[in-house]
Amino acid sequence: MKHVTIMDIPFLNTNQHSFVQLLNQRIQKKEKTFIVTANPEVVMKANHDQQFMQHLQHASYVVADGIGIVKAAKLLNQPLPERVTGYDTMIDLLKLADKNRYRIFLLGAKEGTLEKTVNEISTRYPNIEIVGSQHGYFDRESKDITASIARLQPDITFVALGCPGQESWIANNLSNFDYGIFMGVGGSFDVIAGTVKRAPMIFQKLNLEWFYRLLKQPTRWRRMLTLPQFAFRIVRQKTKGKIS
Ligand code: UDP
Predict the structure, then answer these.
(1) Strands 156-160 and 180-184, bridge-based pairing
(2) Tens of pLDDT along 191-202?
(3) From the CA of 159, how far away is ligand 1's center (Å)?
(4) Probe ligand 1: pick from 107, 161, 163, 168, max atoms within 8 Å of CB?
């Protein structure tokens, strides 16, 4: 099965490695690709916000960013092989870009974080051409940034504006671009810049990355409240047999 639909969102049935290979093929064929990495929070948001749901429907691929989605798929007897996270996908794409001399654009985060991200990427991946960058606190209605990205034609544009802003920005601007990968990467620039640390491997292995983040950024606790609601909705989907 190509997709697993969870609360009306079709998740691509793939693993990290195959997904990145697929993206590489699309870059080489110059196909336009909008990627959404969705966790339970994103799924819940889409189910409460019609416009956000419509934006997600523009996506070429939605992948399972988070153990909650993988667990839900299992419960629905339509298992997904593993998480495909935004951060890991960004790092894999950077490696690919370094190998193939791809051209990238970085959009989002605070000015200082963005500057550090640009420096880190240039040092770690010297063959990548960073064609441009723009911090994430700009007028979203203005088309100037869209026009400059359209002109530069990067192979990959990483959009770190937080959710739902990044997905909405991509959906609203996608028709202006000829090709390239467009992907919302949340707080990934902060991790690359070193302003936010990723969970130690042990937390990642135990699927407790969310718990580590909660410990480090306790203000996020409110977001976690959507998780029980998500679990409840999944059980309801299962009992209704609403799987496609
Ligand atoms: N961000 C931004 N512009 C905004 C809001 C957020 O550039 O208007 C950036 C923020 O500086 C951070 C990133 O988006 O680097 C992700 O923010 P957050 O951790 O809130 O994202 P989420 O966890 O919601 O994906």
Answers:
(1) parallel
(2) 999 988 888 888
(3) 10
(4) 161
